Amino acid sequence: MIQCKSHKLYFRTSLGLFPVSSINYTTKFLTISHPPCSSSVHYISPLLLSAGFPSPPLPNSLLLFNCSNKRHPMPHFIQNCSSFHACGASCKVLSQEQPQVPRSCLLLDDLEKLDIGFDPKDLNCSHYSQLHRSLAGDTDNYEKYKLGTRISYDIPDHVPNLCNECEKPNGNCGVGLRCICHPKECKDKVISMGRTVDPFGNVIFSLISLILVIVSFFVI
């Protein structure tokens, strides 16, 4: 999970390596650092990074910049914001020419309210920033937000057991991984690629396929 490379810590995932800015062993969370301004073309959902881990004590947040969505309805939990620095050249131009442009900056205070498949491009946003809340308080207090994504972990004696969710149908083993359950362990069903498969149905399908092959052989 954690890899040391060139004297720097990284959070190793199936999606790549992400730099770790801090680890708190008392409260059991680590913070992944992000650039202050990222293009939506390279968006990776923070929900994928934290999948399989407990929810952090305070939610992670997302800033969206230069959104010009006209097709998709705006979720009620996404609010306008004006106290953050501009992100992206287009945002700076808009702020100079049209200071009152609506939705030039949008704040999603709690990422867990989003679907894991959300993408800033859905709202036609050009850039984004990933934040976490450092202090509890009123949502209008923007000073409580810090750059980065916090991931909580619960590792007794530093021995991870993150795949307990695989015991459930459609379980998630974290960071874009899916669970595959061995037939002997799953008894009456096999969990593969997030779907349940009935072994009896598989046997019937195989027999039908075999009969069709034999019939076609004699016909030829």
UniProtKB/TrEMBL annotation:
Protein name: Uncharacterized protein
Domain of life: Eukaryota
Source organism of the structure: Quercus lobata (Valley oak)
Keywords associated with the record: Membrane, Transmembrane, Transmembrane helix
Transmembrane segments: 199-219
